[in-house]
Design goal:
83 residues, alpha+beta, two-stranded antiparallel sheet, 4 strands, globular
């Protein structure tokens, strides 16, 4: 199990957060995918649900909160103005 969804507060209100939920198998898969970035094979990974043509992410238990594509990129640190 590995899925991403928009976070909610205990009262059910949507937040501006993304939540990644996984079991042990999902954790191993995510770490293996991140390993491709760490090894320099790529600078990003795309994880998608079956609805979007992938097989990396499962559907969330809250369909309206499901994130169908999760792109994880190796970015450059942002410069803080004035530094």
């Amino acid at each position: 199990m590995l899925f991403a969804r928009i976070g909610t507060e205990p009262g059910g209100e949507w937040t501006q957060t993304a939540e990644i939920v996984f079991d042990r198998e999902g954790l191993e898969y995510l770490l293996s995918q991140l390993g491709h970035i760490q090894s320099g094979k790529t600078d990003h990974i795309d994880l998608m649900t079956a609805a979007w043509g992938g097989d990396d992410l499962d559907e969330s238990d809250e369909p309206e909160a499901t994130i169908h594509r999760l792109k994880i990129s190796l970015g450059r640190p942002r410069r803080v103005p004035g530094e």
